[in-house]
Amino acid sequence: MNKKLKISICGASAIAMSMLLGCGSMKAPATAEVAVSKSAVESAAGEGASEFAPVEMNSAREKLALANKAMDARDYKLAADLATQAQADARLAQAKAKSVKAQKAADALQEDIRVLREELQRTNRQTQ
What we know:
Layout (H helix, E strand, L loop, with lengths): L2 H23 L1 H20 L2 H4 L1 H19 L3 H52 L1
């Protein structure tokens, strides 16, 4: 074998190995993304997002299920992309749930203030 052919074979082997290693290394980030997304969906559900932001929660759950299917099919790029989308949907659902809860608490507080004002006015009228 001449020197140029050996270099070409070594170069091609190195490229092939790096491609194989590169594909295998995508599994770890995708696995991590799916795990983080699962946690985000569970956290959002715990905040009441299923009740207060059902569209976003359903979207998050569907994308997480698709990400798991992509993992099973070893399509790690698709799995990571879907997991990232599921995580974003879950965080949006969680934020909406918190917002609705905060608005309900503010409305209840406003109602309490209104009742107290009425009682105070009634008391003031009785003492005059």
